[in-house]
Amino acid sequence: MFNHPTDVPILVLTEEQSWQLLSSAELGRLVLIVGGRPDIFPVNIAADGRSLIFRTAPGTKLAELSVNEQVLVEADDFSSEEGWSVVVRGTAERLETSQEIAHAESLGLHSWVPTLKDFYVRVTPTEVSGRHFLFGPQRERELGEGSDSA
Amino acid sequence: MFNHPTDVPILVLTEEQSWQLLSSAELGRLVLIVGGRPDIFPVNIAADGRSLIFRTAPGTKLAELSVNEQVLVEADDFSSEEGWSVVVRGTAERLETSQEIAHAESLGLHSWVPTLKDFYVRVTPTEVSGRHFLFGPQRERELGEGSDSA
User: Fold this and answer.
1) InterPro entries from the xrefs (chains A, B) (predicted)?
2) Chain A window 103-132: which residues touch B at a Cβ cutoff of 8 Å?
3) CA nearest A88: which of A17, A18, A16?
4) What digits encode the pLDDT tens for the residues A103-125?
5) Tens digit of pLDDT for each residue in B86-107?
6) Domain spans of chain A?
């Protein structure tokens, strides 16, 4: 799926490729600023067109997301041979209308905390960046010269 | 390994339990503030006592980490039945002495970018928090009443 030029272990993905990977991802990590410092939470995600939806429960920090909150969502997957990571930077807003919520429910997202009062959040991207990594034999090469790092 | 009280799907882990999980983790995500906004990068990690080490290459944003930079490192693992996530909040500093570097090399960390000029960074925690998640039958229960979420 990803053709790296020779000797290019890290491939910068197109937005299209990044969304292909996001479509297959079920787990992501939400990064947001809480009280002036970054925080990170695992979330179940679903791609919905060119946005991401996740579900959360009241009483959590996620529930304090205000409208148009700036967030990051990262998803990745790695094996010993290859890996990818996609980062969506965007704004988060809670879904409020019954139409929006019905649509979000149709995506089959699971909640982390079983509660009847879960709600859905949509992350609308302002920037999507992805990388694909190839771990060839070069990955096994070790330094052997620590003095380089001083 | 993790005994949840009945009907408690999310268990707050002790620091000891969190480090047990970190010791088994090879992949983490580093969160740092770059130019006033959060950024996130996958990194290979190794636990070294009660700190974490990762390796990175010059010319990356990670290479711009200053001494005592405030960072987060998150590691997680999930199956359909259970999962965990541990977040280390701490300060990052580049390893400079040949002794430190030789010790870091002994941890067997792989680099993302093959280069002879990789360097090592140690994250010394100020706070470690972990959660273990049990996804029982309740995870399958769906809402059925979207109007709750408005």
Assistant:
1) Pyridox_Oxase-rel, Split_barrel_FMN-bd
2) 105, 110-114, 116-120
3) A18
4) 999 998 877 666 666 789 999 99
5) 999 999 998 999 999 999 999 9
6) 10-138
